[in-house]
Design a protein that fits this description.
Arc Repressor Mutant, subunit A, Serine Threonine Protein Phosphatase 5, Tetratricopeptide repeat, 3-stranded antiparallel β-sheet, mainly alpha, TPR-like_helical_dom_sf, DNA binding, 7% strand, 2 domains, two-stranded antiparallel sheet, transcription
């Protein structure tokens, strides 16, 4: 997860040209690409395919969250049927595995190679390279942004744009999620939100913060308890000459925390308020050289 402090030294006085970051998830003509940051898709030969059948999509989703790692049949029973599997669940699982394996092979085309859905003594495994899912690409790009944010913030911003462009909706949007895919979906949504916050922080540092204010207000309405959004909104307002609004933003957050949760804002948010009240020079964005 990208931490706040790694983005705090990104200022526009760094005269750096925007480097070309890694391209978006490539679609190989001979190897399907599985995408689940939104509806579940298999992409091959420049075309996008959906997997038919609710059980097949649920099975593929479970295998995709653990590529290369065998899943025991018992895990898949729970993923497919919850606590109430049918009397013939063993045969039913084998039938779904057979259908999914055949579907993936058909989608690969006559000259292609499908992901291998293998049967092991310990269960079933989908042999799939990390870069063949959009979630893996998102995490790779976000990780690269985290690594270069301090020294090349413009490159980090570009990488975050690439990472967030991979999202088409909620993870496994059209899948009846079992416990495994649901937990992964929740984790990915949190990572996406952190990436959005990091992108907004970099935009405040590298561009005119006025352009980030409306998005910060929208995000703060959706996620009122994420104090990082409040802090960034306060900073953006202050840097655009709206000190009173920045203070009011803090006061409204403090009132809501006290009235609904019985707690005070974090120390970091209180310190940011004091900096704004004191018009601390450190709050001013550096002027580009």
């Amino acid at each position: 997860m990208i931490t706040y402090s790694q983005f705090e030294d990104a200022h526009p006085n760094n005269d750096r040209r925007l480097h070309s970051g890694p391209s978006r998830l490539d679609v190989s003509p001979t190897r399907p690409v599985c995408a689940f940051l939104g509806p579940l898709e298999v992409r091959t030969g420049g075309r996008t395919h959906t997997v038919g059948g609710n059980r097949q999509r649920t099975l593929l989703a479970a295998l995709l969250v653990s590529p290369g790692r065998p899943l025991a049949a018992e895990q898949l029973y729970t993923e497919l049927w919850g606590e109430n599997p049918p009397p013939t669940f063993e045969n039913s699982l084998q039938a779904h595995v057979y259908r999914l394996r055949r579907t993936l092979q058909q989608l690969a085309g006559p000259d292609g190679r499908a992901p291998e859905l293998l049967t092991r003594s310990s269960g079933y495994v989908l042999e799939l390279g990390d870069e063949e899912t959009d979630a893996a690409a998102f995490r790779r790009l976000a990780g690269q942004a985290r690594a270069c944010a301090r020294h090349t913030p413009d490159q980090a911003l570009h990488l975050l744009d690439e990472a967030l462009a991979l999202w088409r909706g909620a993870p496994f949007q059209d899948v009846a999620q079992g416990p495994m895919s649901q937990s992964v979906a929740l984790a990915l949504e949190e990572e996406q939100l952190c990436a959005v916050e990091d992108k907004l922080w970099l935009e405040i540092q590298l561009a005119d913060p006025v352009h980030s204010i409306s998005e910060l207000k929208r995000m703060r309405t959706i996620h009122p308890w994420r104090e990082r959004l409040t802090e960034m909104l306060m900073l953006a307002l202050y840097r655009t000459g709206r000190q009173a609004e920045a203070v009011e933003t803090y006061n409204s957050t403090r009132h809501r925390l006290a009235s609904e949760l019985g707690m005070e804002p974090s120390l970091k948010l209180r310190q940011r308020l004091q900096q704004i009240l004191n018009q601390a020079p450190s709050l001013d964005a550096a002027v580009p050289a």
